[in-house]
Amino acid sequence: QQQVKQSPQSLIVQKGGISIINCAYENTAFDYFPWYQQFPGKGPALLIAIRPDVSEKKEGRFTISFNKSAKQFSLHIMDSQPGDSATYFCAANQVRNYQLIWGAGTKLIIKP
Amino acid sequence: NAGVTQTPKFQVLKTGQSMTLQCAQDMNHNSMYWYRQDPGMGLRLIYYSASEGTTDKGEVPNGYNVSRLNKREFSLRLESAAPSQTSVYFCASRPAGGRPDTQYFGPGTRLTVL
Fold this sequence. Notes:
heterodimer; A: 112 residues; mainly beta; five-stranded antiparallel sheet; B: 114 residues; seven-stranded mixed sheet; four-stranded antiparallel sheet; globular
């Protein structure tokens, strides 16, 4: 039933490397694709988002790449830092009811 | 501003007990949500309230009830807790007229049902 599939489940990256998390969606009636970041013991917080009419959005070290034809989008973290260690969730906002459909999450660990 | 607050932070219940999780936001947001978070399953919507006085079921409403007491407060009640309801519960809110994908989350309530 899950309409947003996220991979990998966990990821270990060396400090300074590039972290890449992928998501795929199955329904075309979405209008925003956000990424949320969650630190242990905290609630998720919006990190960056993209609309489907844009192929790429960059904010600092964080970039979303969006492939509408493939129904895929990904988060790239450049120059990954230990402070980026967190769980990342992709999501898709349904047009019909403004509800977010969430991916399963990726636990990212950046090794110093 | 405190943002979204949730009480309690932790709770242990025995099967069959009832409890209410409290959520309040001081950002004058219209929409409020209750999610549960389980390992490997992301966040699943239990109930939401688009505005004061309205509530609707989400993806996993069975075993839960909600009350939108006023614009600030949205509570989640477990009438007869079951071990399957062991989870971390998050409340979130969203402003009217803002981007629909932007939700503000509380710190969560970790619930264990024995």
